[in-house]
Amino acid sequence: MKAGSWSRLAAACLWLATAGCSARRSEPISKAELLTDKPSERGRVVFMEHCNRCHPGGEAGLGPALNHKPLPNFVKRYMVRRGIGSMPAFPQQLINDSDLKDLMSYLTALKRHERGADQTALEEINSRR
């Protein structure tokens, strides 16, 4: 082999060896910040009970991602109450007005902290059952 081919081969091997050393972009590098205010905490429980199946952690799943939706809260409340597309409606009997207000606080916190729902809320729901 020529000298130029060896140097290209060495550079390719070096690149392949170091390419696997970078952090995955789809996972957070640091632990998610915990929510401290009570409405957001209660809203997280409501989210995990009613929304997380289709919007896991506020990200896209069966439904679209919620974390970065630039919609005002009154539009989000309307969508929750009436449903939209394949999303079912959540009437007052399923999510009361207080819980809906707390859910909006949680969605705002998701947007502010750019993080998804965490395992703590799931554990809290499971402990209630």
Description of the structure:
There is one protein chain. By secondary structure, the protein is mostly helical. The chain has a single domain, classed as Orthogonal Bundle (Cytochrome Bc1 Complex, Chain D, domain 2), CATH 1.10.760. Helix content is 52%, strand content 0%. It has 5 helices and no strands. It is elongated. About 4% of the residues have low confidence.
Gist?
The protein is mainly α. It contains 5 helices and no strands.
| Tally of helical runs | 5
Distance between the termini: 70 Å
Tally of domains: 1
Radius of gyration: 22 Å
CATH superfamily: Cytochrome c-like domain
Helix content: 40-55%
Uncertain stretches: 27-31
What is the CATH C level class, in words?
A: Mainly Alpha
Structural class: mainly alpha
Number of strands: 0
- For this structure, the CATH topology is Cytochrome Bc1 Complex, Chain D, domain 2
- Beta-strand proportion: under 5%
- CATH-level-2 architecture: Orthogonal Bundle
SSE inventory with pairings:
Blueprint: H1 3-19, H2 38-50, H3 73-82, H4 97-113, H5 119-128
